[in-house]
Amino acid sequence: MSKIEEIDIRVKAYLYNIGYPRWSRVHATMNRTWTMTSNITESLNAVTKYARELHVVELLEYMRTLLERWTNEKLLNAKGMFTYLGKKYNKELEDNGILSQKMRVRASTYYIYTVIDGMKCFIVCLQNKRCSCGQFRLDELPCAHALAVLRHMNESYENYCSPYYTRESLQQTYEIPVDPLPDERKWNVPQYIVEEVVKPPIGKRQAGRPQKQRYKPYDEVNAKKYKVSYGNCGLEGHNKRSCRNAPKRK
Predict the structure, then answer these.
(1) Is pLDDT above 90 for 215?
(2) For labelling, which of 3, 18, 19, 55 has a CA lying 20 to 30 Å from the CA of 174?
């Protein structure tokens, strides 16, 4: 909150007013997990920028082949893993393991432990897969305090991770193939679709050719931003536009 207040003090007040469940995963009424469901949409928008100018059939075929290639690549990567968890979650587990090496563990019962992390104490319950820091329950992955307890008990972490993070679950995600299409001449199209007449949309098109947004190069943007002008510097092979040592025009 202190960092947000340095940027704009109004944001801090706004976050407090709308309530913690709106922006805090810990206080959310549902498990928001680590994955944003709009990622695939943003990826498709980025790679189909020019393909969207094609006809509908060509556009759909382009997107089908794109998803076909992506699915195959992800499946091969998943099958090439040798860790119990996926790459992303295994890296998070390794980072938590490094943090847990300097923690002390004190047993209360067989499944309740107190973990001393510097000047702070945390309570870990292995039976309910909970830690007072909240990360164990939120991420469904052992936090640094839970890993310290598991190392103290000489127990494996595999029974305390969500099954959705495992290598097998990752492979099952991409096992459903994107089926290739046969030649168009062999398509079995229903007769009522063949006879259907698709009329043009109702509305008037603006006169002239529609303008396309052109992304300017980095040098051109900076040149306009700082209003850099060039002249002759007297060096051999340098001209007005390429030389950085040229004096500015008055």
Answers:
(1) no
(2) 55
Instruction: Name the DSSP class of 2.
Output: H
C-alpha dihedral over 52, 54, 58, 62, to 10 degrees? -40
| Adjacency order of strands within the sheet including 112-117 | 104-107, 112-117, 120-125, 130-131
Cα Rg of the chain (Å, integer): 29
Distance CA 50, CA 84 (A): 40
Of 137, 117, 121, residue with least CA distance to 129: 137
Q: Considering the entire predicted model, what is its pTM?
A: 0.62
Q: How far apart are CA 117 and CA 119, in angstroms?
A: 6
Q: Please state the separation of Cα 242 from the chain's center in Å.
A: 40
Give pLDDT, residue 226: 46
CA 100/CA 157 separation, integer angstroms: 13
Kindly state the average pLDDT of the residues 106-135.
91
